[in-house]
Amino acid sequence: MTTPRITLNDGHTIPQLGFGVWQVPPPEAERVVAEALQVGYRHIDTAQMYQNESGVGRAVAASGLPRADVFITTKVNNNAHRPTDAAASIQRSLEELATDYIDLLLIHWPLPTQYDGDFVSTWEALVAARDAGQARSIGVSNFQPAHLEALHRTGVTPAVNQIEVHPRFSNNGPRAANAAQGTVTEVWSPLGQGSVLTDPVITAIAERLGRTSAQVIIRWHLQRGDVVFPKTVTRSRMVENADVLDFQLTPEDLQAIDGMNKGEEGRIGPNPDQFD
Ligand code: NAD
């Protein structure tokens, strides 16, 4: 599988299609990630919060793949926003992942009212980690446009912003704010955690194209230009979700899926403006 790569604002590139491991139980993570690598995924999205970084690290080490061939993202946890805590937690992530560097390191949530809402100093800790070679690229997750603006004074623009996006929640405001400043949008819960697979708009397109609902939704994300990493622990679904590079949705298909957007009502996860 040759996944297209997107160039980030720091010159590094990221595979546009990857594999997410939220809610993969720690004892299962090594097996699941090993299978994902066998299937052909070369981009794994984990986080300190998921408590499965060590399984990811073991799977990458055991795969026999050169480290440079696998793109690993992890995220600084919500309890580590103070710069000294962030620095210690980044060091722990490197150990858990058994690697010298993280390809992409993110602040998981802005937490606007915790630790005085001072995620800008957390961001500076990520900049320091990048400058020290612990991370190649740095970015944020769940940042609303106002949170992004607060980072401007640091002079370092996040390479990515990872936010909730799926057909019932297109989240186009933050996507546009990302694009305006050269930050790539990564989408989380791309399949709406499975909830949008049976929507008749999706199933009709899937039937016409002889594809599955998951494949149609993943194509929608790819054709919108976002980075996407669906999660599954089932090998056949890993294969299915990766088999999306040899067909196209028509402009009418894209428009029909765009029409499923319910705005805030469609959001599954917490609103980052309120989540603490
Ligand atoms: P998802 O939208 O990828 O849905 C995953 C679920 O969809 C699976 O558990 C399974 O039930 C179903 N599924 C997957 N493939 C399928 C297929 N081919 N056929 C039928 N059902 C299928 O949900 P997600 O795990 O929430 O999101 C993906 C990744 O995004 C996560 O693993 C994680 O890496 C990341 N994420 C980040 C944040 C954040 O705050 N930054 C939050 C949530 C998720």
From TrEMBL:
One GO MF annotation is: oxidoreductase activity, acting on the CH-OH group of donors, NAD or NADP as acceptor
Q: What is this protein called?
A: Putative oxidoreductase
Instruction: Please give the coiled-coil regions recorded for this protein.
Output: none
SUPFAM superfamilies for this protein: NAD(P)-linked oxidoreductase
Q: Which residues form the NADP-dependent oxidoreductase domain?
A: 17-261
| UniProt-annotated site: Lowers pKa of active site Tyr, residues | 75
Classification via PANTHER family: 2,5-DIKETO-D-GLUCONIC ACID REDUCTASE, NADP-DEPENDENT OXIDOREDUCTASE DOMAIN-CONTAINING PROTEIN
**Binding locations of substrate:** 108
InterPro entries in alphabetical order: AKR, Aldo/ket_reductase_CS, NAD(P)_OxRdtase_dom_sf, NADP_OxRdtase_dom
Q: Which family does it belong to?
A: Belongs to the aldo/keto reductase family.
Q: Where is the active site?
A: 50 (proton donor)
Q: Which Pfam families match?
A: Aldo_ket_red (PF00248)
Q: Give the originating organism.
A: Nocardioides baekrokdamisoli
Q: State the UniProt keywords alphabetically.
A: NADP, Oxidoreductase
